[in-house]
Structure formats: structure tokens, C-alpha cells
Here is the input.
Amino acid sequence: MKKKTIFSLFLTFVLVLLPIVANAHPGRTDSDGGHYCRTNCAKWGLQDGEYHYHNGGKTKSTPAATAKPSVKPTAKPTTKPTVQPAPALALPKKQNAGTLQVYFFDVGQGDSTLIRTPKNQYILIDGGNNNQGKNVVKYLNALGVKTLDAMVATHPDADHIGGLDDVLKAVDVKAVYAPKVSHTTETYKDFLTAVKNEGRTIKAVTKGVTIPLTGVEANFLAPINSYGDNLNDWSAVLKVIYKNKSFLFTGDAELQSENDMLADGLNLKADVLKVGHHGSNSSTSKAFLDAVKPQYAVISVGKNNYGHPDSGILARLKNANATVLRTDQKGTITAISDGTKITFTSTKGASK
Ligand SMILES: [Zn+2]
Ligand SMILES: [Zn+2]
Here is the structure.
């Protein structure tokens, strides 16, 4: 760029944009180029909370004359978005005691699953994203959970551990399990701080570690090896068995971890599979699926830009005769097992 052009751009900024910025009230411009008025709205001829644009919603400058504070910002959107109250959270119904219950919470794109044993012991696997922590606490409150016998943080990705600090602050947590891999994000640090504040140290998860429970087996099958910076493959994989029925929770474990579990000769057979990595094609290989042979496949997934769940994986599950249940379609999905059969209910759509 020529010096002259840079100078004239600078001049435009000082003469035109600066007065606009100086007179504008604070607020972040959203992706549509506008925002909601928060302060000094009357001065701008706006209602409190009214959606509007500064500078016509464009980055192009407007003549300085229009930048007077008395001038009402122009080019309001043709359809003014009204601020809608958030829809009420659909809470799962607490099932009768005496069965093994698994609540696949609807946390949008992410994972959070609660296991309740017939003897009323509770295990929470993951807590969804940061902004889902409050919802997970609401789900736990709705189910009357005051104490978690175990919390499992499958791996340090935000869509799994983000909400766990809220859970740690809200309920009593007796033990925390996580693989021996760390992350530098604030979200992960918040999780570690919350664990410390709860007076707990993390129990390292590897294949062979078990969660002590009464009448129910809970064994970790992975991680088997070290996976460098592939956090997904570090996922703690938990198999839960009650009498003749079993569940496999794979976190975001990908092909490498799946192959290691297969090579290790572990008994992967499970009636219900929590499908790895939100149905991404980086998980659920044909060989792994053949070994698990699930009757039901639960996918914890929300609105996302990753293409989850992958259409090829959905086809693979269908070919394997697994009934697919998705949290983005059914809300929170509850599996109820008496040890010989499993039934399902959900907060949205018809129950299975
Ligand atoms: Zn994930
Ligand atoms: Zn992940």
C-alpha cells in the first residue's frame, strides 16, 4: 500500500470514524453489524435494548455531518429481532429407584452423562461446555443429586470439561477421574482450580482403573497408550455393567484409541454405545463397531459446524442394526436398565 493511501485512511479515521466512536455508547457489534442498545439509549433516540446499527452497519465511512450525536442511527434492520426469553430447560424426570439409569443430558454440542446405580450411587461423565454448566447443575438438582460418588472428565476439551467447575461448586464430589493429560486453556485451569477447591486430587485414568460401586461394575478400558497432543484419543473410556446389560462411554476417543482397545483384546461388547466424538467420522470404525455390537447408539450432539454426526457414521450404525438416539432430536435421553432389558425415555419427541 502506498504511503499516501495509508495517510488518507488515517485521516478518514481521525475525521470521520473517531467522532462516531467517541459518541457511540458501549456495546459489542454482532455478526449482523448491529447491536442492542445498553446505555445512553435515549440520547440516540432508541429504546433500552433496541437493536440498531451505528454507521449503517457497514465498515464504510459515512460523511462526517451524519456523525452528530443528535442524528438517529439509520438503517435499522427491516425485521427487528425481539429479545426472546430463553425457552425453559426441559428437565429429565427422575426414575424409580432400583434400576440402573443413564441420563444423556442435552447440553447442545458436547457431552454430559449421569449414571445412577440401583443403590443410588451417582457418576457424572463430563459437564458440557462452559455455558452449559448451569444447565447441568439444574439437571442434577431436578434429579435430586446432592453427591456425586465419581466425576469423570474424559479429556480436557471444553465441550466436555467446561461445565464441570459449576458442578464442583454446586454438589459434593467424592472422587474425580481424568486421564493424565493437561491443557493450557483457561477452561481447563478453571476445572483444576474447582477440583482443588473441592479438596480433591485427580485419580489418573488408564486401562484397568475401576470406580468402586455396589452391585455395578465400572471399568476404564482406555486410554491404553499416550497420544501426544491428540486430546480426543486420551479420552477415558468407561464400561458399566449391571447384571446382563452394559454401557460403553467412549468420550471423544478416535481411531487410534479404538485400534488400541481392539488390539488389547478387551471385551468391548455393550448394549448401549455412547458414540465417540459426537458421531464424527474420526471415531466408530467398522471394526470397533463390530466388536461393540450395540443395540442402541446414543449420539450427544448439538448445532455445530463440524458436520457431526457424520452421514457415513449414521449409515454404518444403521447397517449394524443399532437404533440411533440423538440428543439434538430427543433432548435429554434416559436409559433405564433392570439388568435384563433396557427401555428409553426422552424430554423431546417420541420415546423409544
Ligand atoms: Zn467433544
Ligand atoms: Zn474432544
The radius of gyration is 25 Å. The domain at 100-346 is CATH 3.60.15.10 (Metallo-beta-lactamase; Chain A). The chain has nine helices and 18 strands. Residues 3-23 form the longest helix (21 residues).
